[in-house]
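Q: Can I see a sequence and its folded structure?
A: Here is a first one.
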Amino acid sequence: MSKPRHVVMQVVKRSSGSATHHVDFLMDDTFAERLRQLRSLVPPLGTLNRLRDLVIDKVRVRLPNAVWRTGSHVDTGVEGSCIVISSEGSFNCGGKDSSTREKLVTYNFSIARLVELHAERAEGETLYIRDGTFANDEPADSPAGLWVASLTEEEPVMRVPDTPSDFDTLHELTLRPQQGAGAPAH
């Protein structure tokens, strides 16, 4: 895999109210090329196509490596992950909640823009897409910037408390300094 990176896309607000639901998948140069090839299978809608009885205006392909999340928790109840490519040259990710049968779908995003971002951005950088907008360069205090920050927050680091707590069983004990290099620890 050359130039692997993660792409994180926000899911359109679910009826259950979870605005933090998103999907991420791994992208590389091969994935970008496949997207371009699949886009070529969907001809743009024109007067010639509209006069035909059957017109392909979307292509749906499976996306088995997609990981659906709510906040930082993996949502294992999503099945049928796929990418839908439209005649307008955009794509979205879809799936179905296995318990509620609710359709999950991301906002549309341009295939050409995703391929361009993949080629131009630093190797390994995660691409965040919120409301159909590339969010990495949005101001930190904007809705997109706050969304990216909420997804990239690290778990709190455990630190030693400043004062002893009820759970510190040795807080009355003072440790003696070692008497030399070979001295036993007390």
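Q: Show me another, different protein.
A: A second, unrelated one:
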Amino acid sequence: MDTGPEIDTPVPAQRSEARQPLLEPLDRLQWSQAIELPRDATSASKPSEMRRAWIHRAPEREVVALFRAVRSDGEQPIPAPWWLRALADGRLDSRDTGFRVEDRMTQLLSRRPGWEYVPWAADGESGYWEFMPSERGRSGHRIPTTILNTSRHDGWIDVLPAHSGITPEPIAVAGLAGLRSRLGEFEAVR
């Protein structure tokens, strides 16, 4: 039987520098889907309009379990809302409590002139509030005063003063009462 010259051609050896496929751990892949928001969420005018991802609707214990599993990999910071970090650390009693903090902040800031909600925060985040008169006002700042929720401390609210250069250290605010009492101070920068 004549096999022909093509059969006698040796199979090339595998190249040692061949790239291996980059595989994402399954938990990380699930997490990226868990925090994914619909495209129209970028037009939200308050945090409650952003709560349409799996992490906002699924049973709380499942959300926390997946977050902890992904976080245990320890490779890099995991995109997640502030309330989930606090909940997983045992410093917040429920997701609903986190939602209430955001909603009360919305009630306060949305009634005051100059404050605008910005929904396009980092992946998984809840958005933040900017005081627009502090941007390019008399002081000439390029970045407006910004209020955001945080798991950094148990007041859950940080303020970044208006600035133009290096981002200043956040000012920890003692909850909604602390924010209400200091709003005049934060709004004075224009």
